[in-house]
């Protein structure tokens, strides 16, 4: 009888020891399947924000040179680790731009898309850490990442924000593509 009580106690102690030795994030598997088919209300929130932003832009006279999202290659051409790295960079950029100060009405409109994109970025970071911690980007991706860094240094926040918001559906499609893990379109 003592052995029966001792086995569960030993298993519990061993589990606690292993849990301390391996952080929870390392044990967490990479699952992006929830991004294969985006929820309609999330897409509507992004569309509403984009429409409102386009209305605001009509009233401004911004002249932007950034063409970050005009690429000569498609996400489908990248390897799965490259797709994940691309989307992580895009989500970092988009969430940073949506986090900038804005007029009260627009700040409220972008809260839901910002929360969704922030959650997607966190989920993606778990994948980068577990699946490709030492992956080196391909030449195509490396060039785009350099272009992104250069734009951050040379463009105004307004132009960067416009680029991020106007191309959010491309970012969402890239997220879907990374979640598919197979060939995507």
TrEMBL record:
Localization of this protein: Secreted
Range of residues in the leader sequence: 1-21
This protein's record includes keyword Ligase: no
InterPro entries for the chain: IFN-lambda_sf, INF_lambda
Record Gene3D superfamilies: Interferon lambda
GO biological process per UniProt: cell surface receptor signaling pathway via JAK-STAT; defense response to virus; innate immune response; positive regulation of immune response
Family: Belongs to the lambda interferon family.
Protein name stated in the entry: IFNL3 protein
Lineage: Eukaryota, Metazoa, Chordata, Craniata, Vertebrata
Gene assigned in the entry: Ifnl3
């Amino acid at each position: 009888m003592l052995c029966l009580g001792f086995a569960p106690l030993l298993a519990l102690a061993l589990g606690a020891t292993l849990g301390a030795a391996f952080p929870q994030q390392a044990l967490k598997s990479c699952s992006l399947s929830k991004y294969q088919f985006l929820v309609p209300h999330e897409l509507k929130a992004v569309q509403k924000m984009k429409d409102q932003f386009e209305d605001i832009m009509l009233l401004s006279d911004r002249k932007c040179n950034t063409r970050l999202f005009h690429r000569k290659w498609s996400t489908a051409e990248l390897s799965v680790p490259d797709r994940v790295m691309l989307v992580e960079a895009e989500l970092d950029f988009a969430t940073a731009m949506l986090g900038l100060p804005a007029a009260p009405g627009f700040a409220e409109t972008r809260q839901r898309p910002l929360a969704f994109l922030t959650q997607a970025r966190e989920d993606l970071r778990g994948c980068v850490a577990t699946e490709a911690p030492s992956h080196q980007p391909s030449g195509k991706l490396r060039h785009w990442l350099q272009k992104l860094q250069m734009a951050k240094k040379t463009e105004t926040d307004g132009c960067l924000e416009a680029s991020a918001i106007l191309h959010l559906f491309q970012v969402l499609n890239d997220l879907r593509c990374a979640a598919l893990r197979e060939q995507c379109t």
